[in-house]
Amino acid sequence: MTPDFYRGRRVMITGGLGFIGSNLAHRLAALGADVLLVDSLIPDYGGNLFNIAGIEDRVRVNVADVRQASTMNYLVRDRDVIFNLAGQVSHIDSMRDPHTDLEINCRSQLTLLEACRHHNLHAKVVYASTRQIYGRPDHLPVTERQLVRPTDVNGINKAAGEYYHLVYNNVFGVRACALRLTNVYGPRQLLRHNRQGFIGWFIRLALEDQEIQVFGDGSQIRDFVYVDDAVEAFLAAGATDAVNGEAFNLGGDEHIAHRDLVRLLVELAGSGRFRFVEWPPDQKAIDIGSFYADSSLFKSRTGWAPTVPLRDGFARTLAYYRQHLPHYVGTSSV
Ligand SMILES: NC(=O)c1ccc[n+]([C@@H]2O[C@H](COP(=O)([O-])OP(=O)(O)OC[C@H]3O[C@@H](n4cnc5c(N)ncnc54)[C@H](O)[C@@H]3O)[C@@H](O)[C@H]2O)c1
């Protein structure tokens, strides 16, 4: 990516007040882009106005829902690059309320792509997909050639959302690609409840000197990506046509078991403790076991590589929340 690609570029981020979207907004504001953030701020989701503290004068915020076609038709009109990150991200919520997940993660993707097809064929769209679409891997590391076989409703709808982007690229000329993110961590993630991934919740418990419950024996492996590295991947994908029409794994280079991760967290936080507990049946039913991705395709296509070691990333993350915890700990039910 040439350093000034985003200078003056008209960019839109759906889900722009959420975890990854707001980190992307900070970087784009620093690069001099014209940034429009679209977010519905649905209670209990990841959107948080504090996430844009420090850049509120340099970005525009439109509190809108991606399910609304007329709004999306209007908002996409003058945008050069659209980072499409709005989503219902809780796997367990997708099983409890599958229709909402369908509406946001599947149907709304068509709404955005139709808006581009009819009102802005010039825009490039980068979609935030997920490793969840693979389900339980046949072998590790997981390449893009493995079967897509989701274990939950969220994975099914995200897979459909992803394929819509690829079809609109191939058939209608809406330039689009998808990044299948593994586990992203870092500042500005929701910590209010434990239904949106375990990592933010573990960080909160460690900082509050509470007990972290690790399901099973903690042997399941993950590859974490620090959010700044994920942001650079989105920027790289948005700036090149060499990725159009394809989906790419985006994972970290370090693989770590849950039990070693909590040890690291407790060590770095200097507080908290952990205990192994039985899997809750509803969590066990949708668990994907160990997962780490082979991201070499995206690396070779864009030159991207993760740069933040796990230990540094978690130290930075803990430092951020130590300073700003009240903005991330609300009154939500667990
Ligand atoms: N964080 C991860 O580890 C991870 C892993 C795989 C995929 N992803 C994907 O990346 C994207 C961003 O995830 P995140 O971790 O930043 O989550 P997040 O919950 O912090 O951000 C999602 C944002 O989308 C907004 N949103 C939800 N529904 C909306 C709607 N109908 N209209 C407008 N805005 C809406 C939310 O308010 C929130 O701000 C999601 O699409 C998610 O599926 C994230």
- Look up the CATH topology of the domain at 10-190 and 224-253 and 293-308: Rossmann fold
CATH architecture of the domain at 10-190 and 224-253 and 293-308: 3-Layer(aba) Sandwich
Give, in spatial order, the strands making up the sheet with the most strands.
3-2-1-4-5-6-10
Number of helical stretches of at least 4 residues: 11
Count the beta strands: 12
CATH class assignment of the domain at 10-190 and 224-253 and 293-308: Alpha Beta
What is the overall silhouette?
A: globular
Bound molecules: nicotinamide-adenine-dinucleotide
| Rg computed from alpha carbons, rounded to a whole number of angstroms | 19 Å
- The H-level CATH homologous superfamily of the domain at 10-190 and 224-253 and 293-308, spelled out, is NAD(P)-binding Rossmann-like Domain
Largest sheet: 7 strands, parallel
Kindly describe this structure.
This protein has helices spanning 19-30, 69-75, 91-96, 98-119, 153-172, 198-207, 227-238, 258-269, 281-284, 296-302, 310-324; strands at residues 10-14, 34-39, 59-63, 81-84, 124-130, 176-181, 183-185, 211-215, 221-226, 247-250, 255-257, 273-277. With 334 residues, it is an alpha/beta fold. The chain is globular. Bound molecules: nicotinamide-adenine-dinucleotide (NAD). Nicotinamide-adenine-dinucleotide is lined by residues 14-15, 17-21, 39-42, 45-47, 65-67, 85-89, 104, 128, 130, 158, 181, 183-184, 190, 197.
